[in-house]
Amino acid sequence: MTDAVLSADKHLFSLKKFDIIVATGFKEVHLSPLAENSKAAASASFRLLQIDLACPDPLNQYLVADNALIHDLMNDKSGKYAYIVFQNLTDGMTKGYINLLEILAKRDKDEYNDFQVQRLAGLLLTELLHQHWQKISKSRSNFPRKNVRHANRDTQSGAIMTYLTQKNGQVSLKEAAEYFGYQATYFSRLCRKLFATDFVHLRRNIRINLAEDQLLLTNKKLEEIADELGYQDLSSFSKAFAESTGLSPSKYRKKYTLNQINT
Questions:
Q1: The pLDDT value given to residue 150
Q2: Are 102 and 47 in contact (CB under 8 A)?
Q3: Are 73 and 130 in contact, with CB atoms under 8 Å apart?
Q4: For residues 202 and 154, what is the distance between their CA atoms, to the nearest angstrom?
Q5: 244-248 contacts, C-beta under 8 A, 24 or more apart
Q6: 103 band by pLDDT with thresholds 50, 70 and 90
C-alpha cells in the first residue's frame, strides 16, 4: 500500500506501491516504509498475509494457470532463495483478490474458509501471470536456475537475468554464453529475441537497476557503488545513471532518501 523496504533473512528489497513478491526460501519477513520524511513514514500502510497453499506435487493447472516461471518457482525443491517481483499492478484485480483474502483471514477457520482461500490464492497468482511480461521485474527477481536449452522463453529469460544480476552485470558475452552452453553468436541472438535489446544494453540496464537499489538501501559512497558495478570511475557511472533515470546518483538518493528502516 506504500513504497516500502522488505527485509527477509538479512536481504533487503525496495518495493513500490502495490508491488508483490512471490517467493520461496524466505524465513523471516519484515516491512518498513520507504519514505522521504518521518511524517510520511508514520502514515505508511502495509498488509502482510501468510497463506499455506495445499498445491499438487508437482504443481499443475489445478491451482495456477500454466506458466513456467511460477511453476518452476513453486516446484523447486532446492530450498534456496528464489523470488519473482511483480510490478505495475494498476488494474485493481490483484488488489481485489488481496482484499478478499484479508477478509477470509479474519474469519474462524473451517474447511469452507480454507477452500475459498486456496482458490483465491490460485486466482491471485493466475492474475499475476496474465500479461506477465509487462509485470515481472526480471532484473529484480531471482529465478530458480536450471538448464535453459529446452526451456520456454519465460524460463530462459528468468535464468539469464538471474545469472547476470548475480554477476553485477560484470560478465562478457562469451562468459555468459559458455555458462549456459551456447556459442557467443547464438547467445547474442537469443538475448535479442528474449529481451528485445542487445547483450550490452541488457547488461547496462541490470547495472542501473542494481545501482538504484544500492542508493536506496545502503549508505555506500558513490565511488564504492561505481566500483562494485564495474564502472571505470565515478564520472562514467554518473553519466550512465543520469542517461537512464534522468537524475544523477546523488540527486536520486536525495530524492528517495530512506530515513527509517525498522527491521
A1: 59
A2: yes
A3: no
A4: 16
A5: 244/204, 244/205, 244/208, 245/208, 245/212
A6: very high
